[in-house]
Each structure stands twice: as structure tokens, then as C-alpha cells.
Amino acid sequence: EAAQLVIRAIWGTPKPVIAAVEGAAYGAGVSLALACDRVIIGDTVRMSMAFTGVGLAGDMGIFASLPARVGPARAKQLLLLPRVVAAAEALQLGMADEVVPDGEVLAKALDDAAILAGGPLRAYGAIKAMLAEPVGTVPEILDRELAQQIQLFASDDFAEGVAAFAERRQPRFGQQPS
Fold it and tell me: Cα 104 to the chain's mean position, in Å?
């Protein structure tokens, strides 16, 4: 339950969360990384589901995050027959979003975080909410999408984005106009 609090916090915040992984991530380490919105790994990373090796099935959201990233069939195989997945394969499978040289992972994650920090928080929250529960019929998804957009159209970030576009400058989201 305590570990799930962390996962719920990652999934519940409107802010994008970035995982920076070097070395090995096994079991709960993989679960934690895959719960994040962006996963950056070093080029010598090794990942493994490893849960069945200690008599467990998996936790910390792995049954949501792994299938979302690699598909249900691959997720089942990675959980049933855990093996070590190297960085290149993790990227190919979708377990990672970017591979960088070891020693540069944290710097890349911080660079991406700086870019995201200047972005539209409410829009990020809408993206995370829409993708967290993509189930439903197409009309239901369209209705949810419309409801999100109506709220965003009324936001200061939208006004700033439109003004910045008209003025041919970068938007300054979350700030008062100068």
C-alpha cells in the first residue's frame, strides 16, 4: 500500500514525471520507472520484471503501465518468463522513451524537465487524464476530449498561447503577461 501511494501520486499529478534510469532496474524498480510519463535510460541499463523469481506476480502498477507501453501479449510474456532486457531492446519494446550514454541520463532528464516546466500545466493534466482512462466508445472519448478542451479554452495558458502565436514568440505559460 505504501508503494502504491508513490504510483498513485505519479499518476495523479497533472505534472509530467520523468524517470532517469542507470544500471539495473528489476521488479519494483521497473514498475516505478514505467509508472512515469517519460523514461530515459542509460545505454547499459538492464531491466527485468523479476517478480516471479521471488514468488510474486507484480505490483506498483505494473499491470497497467507495462501493457500500456508494450502491449498485453508482450507484457504477459515479460511477467511470466522474466528475462533481462537490455537498453536497446527496452527502447524498441517501448519500455523506454530515450536511450542516452551512461552518465548523461540525469542531465537529459533535467533538460526535459526544464522544457516541460515551462509548458501548460493544465494541458499536461488533461493529456494525462485522457490517456489514463482511454476506455470507452469513440463518442464517449470524444465527449471527454471536448470537456477537457472547453476547460482549456477558458484558461490563461490558452490565451497566452494564442497571444504568443500572434506575436511570433515563445509562450510563457503560467506567468502573468509582462
Answer: 19
Pairing status of strand 85-86 against strand 46-48: antiparallel
Helices (H), the chain: 2-12, 28-35, 62-70, 72-80, 87-93, 105-117, 121-132, 138-153, 156-166
Segment-wise mean pLDDT, segments of 10 residues, the chain, 178 residues: 92 96 96 98 97 92 95 96 97 98 98 96 93 83 89 92 94 68
**Cβ within 8 Å of residue 9, ≥6 positions away:** none
Q: Contact 41/22 with Cβ under 8 angstroms?
A: yes
CA distance 163 to 121: 17
pTM, to two decimals: 0.88
**Grid coordinates in use for 15?**
505534472
